[in-house]
Write a structure and sequence with these properties.
Low-confidence stretches: 1-32
Shape: extended
Helix content: 25-40%
Strand content: 15-25%
Order of helices and strands: EHHEEHEHEHE
Mean pLDDT: 74
Radius of gyration: 20 Å
Structural class: alpha/beta
Number of strands: 6
Distance between the termini: 39 Å
């Protein structure tokens, strides 16, 4: 694979390991890795490969240097100042399993109370409609916020 870049990211890490880490690597990934010219990975056992480069922070964090005031932001989002806020950032897709997240939050909220779940990211109409219905049925209307896609 000339000029190939293999990205073995976190999704692969969760499904593979080597003997040292106590996980088995899927045969297909190893075959591709053997032929790749470059490898970008979070999988530790490949980091000694000379083709591998570790990207410690692929996100430009300078945009987050001046964080908004916590109180102002909570007011803007109608979130109580004294409650725990759990935030998920990511588009709504089947793979991200927002349904399960709502069920897990419901169990957490029932046991602990005083918490909010905020979902941020591009919505899928079918998934978000189903989630909103589940949120209502579980009595979480005041505890869960779907903010949609945001640029802040």
């Amino acid at each position: 694979m000339s000029q190939a870049l293999l990205d073995l990211g976190a999704h692969v890490k969760s499904s593979m390991t080597n003997a040292i880490e106590g996980v088995s690597v899927a045969h297909g990934e190893l075959t591709i890795a053997a032929r790749a010219d470059q490898i970008a990975t979070v999988v530790t056992f490949l980091r000694d490969d000379p083709r591998c480069r570790v990207v410690y922070n692929a996100i430009d964090t300078s945009a987050f240097a001046a964080m908004p005031d916590r109180v102002v932001l909570r007011r803007e989002l109608d979130l109580p100042i004294d409650e725990r806020v759990i935030i998920h950032v990511g588009r709504m897709t089947e793979a991200k399993n927002h349904r399960r997240m709502i069920r897990m939050f419901e169990a957490h909220h029932r046991q602990r109370g005083g918490s909010r779940l905020v979902l941020v990211g591009r919505e899928d109409d079918a998934i978000s409609s189903e989630l909103r219905r589940s949120i209502r049925q579980l009595g979480l209307g005041d505890a869960v916020r779907l903010l949609g896609d945001r640029d802040d």
